[in-house]
Write a structure and sequence with these properties.
The chain has 279 residues and is α/β, with parallel strands linked by helices. It has 14 helices and five strands. The chain has helices spanning 2-28, 51-58, 71-82, 87-102, 121-127, 140-148, 151-158, 171-176, 182-197, 212-217, 219-230, 236-244, 254-257, 260-272; strands spanning 41-44, 64-66, 109-112, 132-137, 207-211. The protein has a five-stranded parallel sheet, sandwiched between helices. Helix 3 (71-82) packs antiparallel against helix 4 (87-102), helix 6 (140-148) crosses helix 9 and helix 9 packs parallel to helix 14. The radius of gyration is 22 Å and the shape is globular. Residues 30-34 have low confidence and may be disordered.
Length: 279
Amino acid sequence: MFSNQNGKQSKLSYELRKSLFKAHVRRNLPWPIRTKLRSPIFVLGSSRSGTTMLTDIFATATRVCNFSEVPIVRLHMWEMVKSPETLPHGLPQLEKNLVRLSGIKPRQRLLEKTPGHSLIAGALANYFTDGSFIHIFRDGRDVSNSMLRHKWISRELKEEVEVFWFSRLPQTYLEKWPSLEVWERGSLRWAVYVTAARKAKLATEKYLEVSYEDICSNPQYRIYQLFDFLNLAVSPDCEKKILEIRPINLKRDKHRELSQKKQRFYTQVLREFGLSTIQ
């Protein structure tokens, strides 16, 4: 009897503490706790293409809340990519998570960069109708080389099991996958991301493409152009970030840096993915 009373009191105490905690969270979480995002900014693009560089620059703007590559958002993204049928209820849940977890303030715009979101860019653009989408792309050969030096991406490319973007490969490459070199797999990963990111253009006029090479060759002009497109004000911190952009040699002969086999494979990927306009 006594033990039963103690159990009831313990349960009551737990429920009371739980209710008090919820009330505390509701009072102290930044505005808004239950609302929709207003004019969010999404940075799209393959990994190793300059998405982080661009996001860091945008984050210097006033009235921008940067909430990028958060683990729980990334996991949610993986589920939607692997199971497209979950998009109708997955996208509202994504917005809910972004609003509640980011700490966004009343007049701020959310800035989000998770490269995997490029794989559902068309759905994002259809859902976030007042959102802006900046797609940064880079020469696929350089991207693939960079992937080899990146620990977790190179590990992903070495896997013989299906990865979360695997279903987006043409059947011919699915069959060839076990025999492909890691560099070739990186080229395919890049092509899948670029092709998917471009689908946002079909769903919104607030989509702009910019190449990594163009930004690095003329950073001030290109960054100002992007800020103007997003209706953001350039801050002194932004000017500092622009000065940190390292110039690149646009006169490099990338054909000489690759074996004939890799160059043939890359050319074939450009053709089959409809990316022949990317040099």
